[in-house]
Request: fold
Amino acid sequence: GIKLNLAGQFEFRGLGTNGVIYSLYASPVVPNSSANWQLIGTSTADVSGNFLFTDPNAFQFPRRFYYSIGP
Reply:
């Protein structure tokens, strides 16, 4: 799921595979090529497969697009 936490930071929760590292990318514009995406963090899925990203810089953008990817 996606939400803003109490600190105003963007949170992205996902479900994947235990122990797998997932990468989160963001872009301030609707991306039209891979050049628009910037890696903003990684997260390792826990034993249940849950992973969480927090973007503390989300407030700096009027809008931001995200995607996550695993191996």
User: Anything to note?
Assistant: The chain has a mean pLDDT of 88. The CA atoms of residues 2 and 32 lie 23 Å apart. The longest strand covers residues 21-27. Strands lie at 2-4, 10-15, 21-27, 38-44, 50-55, 65-69.
